[in-house]
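Researcher: Hi, I'm a grad student and pretty new to this. My advisor asked me to get structures for two proteins we've been looking at. I'm not sure of the right format, so I'll just paste the first sequence and hope you can take it from there.
Model: That works fine. Here's the first sequence with its structure tokens right after it:
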Amino acid sequence: MKKLLANRGVLMALGFTALFIVVSVYFLMHENYLVLLVPAVLLMMWLFVNYRDESLALIALGTPFAVDYAVIGDMKLSMPVEPMMIAFTLVFLFQEVLMRRYDKRILRHPVSILIMLSILWMIVASALSLKPVESFKYTTARLWFVIPFFYATAQSFQKVRHIKMFYWAYALALGAVVALTTAKTLGGFSDLQLMHRVMRPFYNDHTAYGCVIALMLPLAVYYTFESEAKTWKRLIAAALAVLLLIGLGLSYCRAAWISVVLAVGMYVLVRLGVRLRWMVLVAAVLAGLFFTFQSEIVYRMGKNTQDSSFTVAEQVQSMSNITTDASNLERLNRWDAAFRMWREYPVTGIGPGAYQFIYGPYQRSEMMTVISTNDGDLGNAHSEYIGPLTEQGVPGALLVLAVFVTTFLTGERVYRTAKDRRLGHLALVLAVSLLTYYIHGMLNNFLDTDKLSVPFWGLTAAVVALDIVTEKKTA
């Protein structure tokens, strides 16, 4: 007894245990079972404090399986991972503020600075929003995506093996979802609408599903040919790459297909030694030609009546159908409404996340389609560039574009200058993976969801971490 009394830690533990038992009995007698989650929450917090890197991988592993659940009224969280992200964010901030051990090189990195400026501008735009409550909710959610999966992982990924651990955690879970979705698809090839929603409840529709597969595919191919890896690991990577290719094909997501093709083309050009300045020049010339001959191009697009199809060639051809394809026409309707709103609020926008609550009255009757609603309650602006322009004004759109461009340029620079060619090649593949999202983002936007934010910000952090830790060649 004397030894027990002398050990204050044991006494405190026994005291808290007894208190928890008493409180639990009280709540259970009143049929409130949430108290049973307390041990799980405490265990989770302990993991976040003592096993940060593994905790990030654990959240990544659970993300593809997460489903939306209404927790308070109509407020939905992706369960169980979003509560874990919120808790991780609080623990991470508390630890770093208390211990002051965060790597300042990350905070000084151009990508990191641009992300911080983007979030600060989102806060300003939220304060001036037409829907301030919804905008602050949207901005707050962005914080628990960015802080764990960019700022925490950027520090973790300075140990390169943690990049692989994070990737495989998400990729293997995604592979399981793809396998399940493919199995459900068998026998349903005659119903294109079924193919568009068969990935539910894990992914809302085929566009997000195809987008995340495209994002993860280049790294699966990279690990397949990683010379330092053991044979059995390369075989697993090859199996995953094949599975993701099948999933990409069966997603019937045209934007995902095109993004992979263009990203592979960029990878080949960089590996051949073509400098980015020439690529930018060619892109500028092509853009100039488009605007010069836009009337003729739009006229010819108007002649295209090919709707979505099971045939790959016809499915790709339908991308330019602005006459009868409801998906394309609805996207044009959303963009038209977005630009009309932006012209009214060009500097600060209507507020982050506010588009879906406001765009209804901005639709023009001649632009509306069979899938439009007068209420305007079917989601966002369907563009990672037009959306921020409308919701955050010109500064918000420029900051988003700057984050994307700077991240890709960083990955390409590491590839050219790293003394360790293996790390340089990894940085290039990471940049190419992100490029699939940058391209896809012209037609859709998913960074307000955990499904895409977790891998997107994680891969962005990996590029920054490699830029920090790789030893560069002298000029």
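Researcher: Oh nice, that was easy. Here's the second one.
Model: And its structure:
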Amino acid sequence: MDNLMYLKSGTDIRGTAIEKDGKPVDLTDERLTKIICAYVDFLKNKLSKNDLSIALGYDSRVSSIRIAETVLKTLSSLGVKVYNCGLSSTPSMFMSVVNFGVDSAIEITASHLPMEMNGLKFFTREGGFSGDDIKEILSSAEKIETEIELKNEGILTLDNMEKYCSDLREMIKKGVSSEDYEKPLKGLKIVVDAGNGVGAFYAEKVLKILGADTDGSRYLDPDGTFPNHIPNPENKVAMKSICEAVYESKADLGIIFDTDCDRAACVDEKANEINRNKLVALASYIALKGNDGGTIVTDSVTSDGLNVFIEKDLGGVHHRFKRGYKNVIDEAIRLQNEEGKNAPLAIETSGHAAFRENYYLDDGAYLVTKIIIEAAKLRKEGKTIGSLIENLQIPLEEKEVRFTIKLKDFKDYGLSVIDDFKRLCENTDGISVSPVNHEGVRVNFDKNNGDGWQLLRMSVHEPLLVLNCESNEQGGCRKMLDFFKSFITKYGELDTSKLS
């Protein structure tokens, strides 16, 4: 029996798709066929129907065409009505289920991972598949031994991206509601860095058509070798690139996407990053308009300054939850449906932002569309997008340190370290444990001990303990890290070398 479970990556399937540096290919055609067979069986059971329609799209990776051909042929051979959407963003593939009524959609992508990697994301009308769904599919795929004869018949084409772009354009027209209704972005200069992923559509099929000047945009050509930088809004080189593009072209706004456009960040007219906590703050401002007192669900590593901004400046409720964009989205849905709370936004600091009004879909293009609408309105008042978050307190220092757990059964060991750290902090003067901890333990240091906080947590997917640290004073992180170092070095099954 072929072991496939290691291909599970959260709520996706991911593996090596191109041999590189001697690493063999995981996503072989044979394995892909087995996985798709198991996926189709899973769908039939989930939807209680046998006649399925499925749409498929893919990102710009070198291996995407090969994988797409195998997936399309497998689906056709299984009697599925298949639509090939071609080069597509991940959010647009979910929207194919909404706009065209297909039963399910697949996006071939590995997001920001290196060029040799690739993977599969699955959607139904309910949203993306859960981790348990992926486990069930892979478990079933492992047991499949019968080979099927692949066909290439009856595969239809669907211009899903055109409908997706048209909807974004209409959203901007209505949102800005300018005198020149068809050209609401006329006079605005907005540059896009697509990082050679699929994000060029936003510059060419949304911004330009609406009158924006996009000269100075970068890396719009799809190129799966990613020759310029990793398409990732959390990557320093990538963010430097869009900052330079804004500065050099004297743009009013800069936009950067990850490879498949489910994440984004932006840059203001002064070439300052609006990323991570700043992006969460900006999205929260937008989401709470018309949702007074609403709850913003974020991941666990958001700053104290963001908490103050959401609750004091915006009058909202900040619900700090776990890392992992699906965790954050599912928690917002739970609060909305089970507790009756007004939860208009779920957002992770990585740039995954899901608005309730948009099916709680993490969609980078939808997020920046909301931001651009605000920017166009503010321009009429002589203001810029940065003015909306000028009261956000930014920590002077921040640091993340990762500690590899050198055990096969790592989870229990990691959790025991977290429990020990919590007990230590509960009994140390000048340090207090946060009353609510949905993930790991968050502790606060007073002004004599670093004036900030630390969060010790398990990594979502890897055998790692992760320490996040922020301070409001120069040298504060060092004080807090020295305290942590005196605690952590006694644990022999951790690689603590990075602390030095």
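Researcher: Is there anything I should tell my advisor about the second?
Model: You could mention this: The chain is about 35% helix and 20% strand.
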